[in-house]
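Hi everyone,

Forwarding the result from last night's run.
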Amino acid sequence: MALFKIFKNLFITPILIIAIFILPDILYSFINSKYEFNIMMSELKKLYILSLLFSFLRYKVKIFSIFLIYIIIFFQLSSFSYFGKLLAPFDVWLFFVHFSEVSNGLLDEYMHIVLPFFVVVFSLFISLFVLKQTQKQFFTFKYSGLLLLVALLIVPYKIYNKVYIKKIDSVEKYPLINSASIRNMYKCIGYFCVVTLPRKLSSKSLDDFKDIKYITNEKNPKRNIILILGESLRVKSMSVFDYNKDTTPNLKDLYKTNNIIVKKSISAGTMTKVSVAYLINQVSSLEDINKIYTQDSCLFNLAKSNGFSTSFITNQSANDSRFIKSMMCPKYIDNFLTPNILSQDYDLGDVISDNDMHLSLKNVDLTKPTFLIYQMQGSHTPYSKKSPPKFKKFKHEYDNSVLFTDHSLSKFIKHIKEQKNILPTDIMFVSDHGEMLGENGHSGHGHLTKEVFSVPFIYSSNYENKELEAKLLNKDIVTHYDVSQMILSSLGYKTTDEDNNQEVLVMGKDVDGYAGYAILSISKDDITDIKIYK
């Protein structure tokens, strides 16, 4: 009997509390299909600790806490319903700075908070009933509240230690769709209090938003724009850029026959979550970082506003792509797909292949104006799993992964060119960042080094786009921001052209620059100076 009581207090009761914590998420995911709640085991482990300590609280404290928790969850679900994304720490700042604007917007669009409200209220009644019926079965002790408070301070301390002491990125500020609302808000509020609020209050300007107006040159253009995002692909390892190993034979052939334009490029960041957020939201300077949070400059948003259907197809796992989703204005993405297409031509085992990425186009109607972003598996570690047996030509597995990317990308380009019944289609390829392969004792990415931010850019089309081709021919180096401007132009909007002699921002591991950044000076076709700020 004593063993059962211990088992009940250590396992059954915490599981019941976890169910109460995630009940609103589960119910809301049934109502809103875009809310893909799929909690990870690692998140359940963290919730278990909080749930165990919560179960030790006195009944009245439990009731008060549940009310507070559900109010917090309501804000998270309302944010997803209204903005199409989960709350990040900066969104909390926006709520206070632009309180009247946000409140007026919510009053006008009150239907967006009706469903979250009923979900939370219904969950609250269920939870209160369960707690009432089981209150006598809970084991409580005097100092449980103090222990819970100490446990709650662990995340803010971890954030402080990472940001201020170690000066590295803290992922606690990124909301995750596969995490419970209570956990997302817990991390969000912690990061807001420890980092966002102090830094904003100490800055010269408390409100540095720009009122950006986008002017359409062409209303509802009849074309497609496909942006292919490479993964961890660096210029230095591509023979089309004079690498001494023939890693890109197909792209070299396409280049020699004038089927593609090839340029060196500078990535906006050294990590996927940073560079993709910057590219899609047209961020080119520190002053523009807020664009990521307002979503006004998001290319998906602008595409929808000018008559395009929108799609994001990732060939990466949900776990790998979870950080970027909330920063890509998912509200404006018609199709967010994770196809995980396995190659039919090669025995890949557990490798998710880019070889058949053209097959994913069956989910997209290219006979109607479409803006599509496709994210490849590319050359991310482990390199050995990024190429099938027939492509094991070189000793270094990274080179083999580049060879396979060359095959897959060229195959995709040829496929588009062969289509007869689709609209005029622009294809742009750029890697999210490069990779270190032992240079200066470093490997991987996240480093503010030339190997990491020097990436390839490739353009092709199934028609003659003289204006865009002329712009490319005048540029020696194409930045991620340049890519966003070319897409903006193809979407039918007016852009502001920049010359080649410019300073380029490359952000480190962190979207807001807390993990350092570099300012590059570019002249002609090379980087002349690199200034790193930490």
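Residues 340-352 have pLDDT under 50 and may be disordered.

Cheers,
N.
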